[in-house]
Amino acid sequence: MLPPEPNIEVRSHRPARATGKPPLLFVHGGYCDAWCWDRYFLPWFAAHGYPAHALSLRGHGASGGRETLFVAGVDDYAIDVERVAAGLEEPPVLIGHSMGASVVEHLLVKGPVRAAALLAPVPPGGLGPMAGRLLAVQPEYLVNLQRLDAPHFASDVLAALRPLYFSDDVAPAVLTEALFHLGPESPRAILDLTLRWHSDRSGVRVTPFVLGAQGDRISHPGDARATAALYETEAAIVPGLAHMMMLERQWESAAEPLLKWLERLPSR
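Request: output the structure for the sequence above.
Response:
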């Protein structure tokens, strides 16, 4: 593993007054950063009484570690989450999206975790079946991912990837902002996610909430259901949204079932 990264970007929104509700810590997926949560989810959950935080994993966003990103693995990302979580007022509920869901799963195995939610997760079979599916739809998919190399990122790359990550209804302003927040991902982390590393769940003591989107072309509803089955639970599937569900115009349809689950959590 790599040494701890001291410079981790954290974006935070807090309720107007203390509510006694647990803090939330959101973990972004691959090729992105904490911005994806900051536009809608963080202020919305803060308005509902939850201290809401999102970090940019090392090598992403304004965090340090860009020079060693190419060798950072899921275990290194998990350390970033642990360090940010330890600095919060109390143990947070962990909420991960896509690759970030896999980071949260890694921490579920290590334990203890207060509670966890997995949004558009990588399925138990890993990235291999997902990549094969995507290549059948867009043969140049992997080539375009390799071109996510800021500051040389070109808008035509986003145009090529847009149908896979966003619905046709996504706001143009979101796509414009995305140009500044998409970037390269660690090859080692991708390798970690390609392997079937989900198999050992013997140490997990927390049943996560699993959420998928009906219009997701990256993590199909079947992937969310397979992940839920691994934890002997059922996935909630929201209609219409694409993979980047937190940035869609109808993002509240993903936020609301997550809020309902949070409200059912036992108090500590």
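The domain at 10-129+185-264 is CATH 3.40.50.1820 (Rossmann fold).
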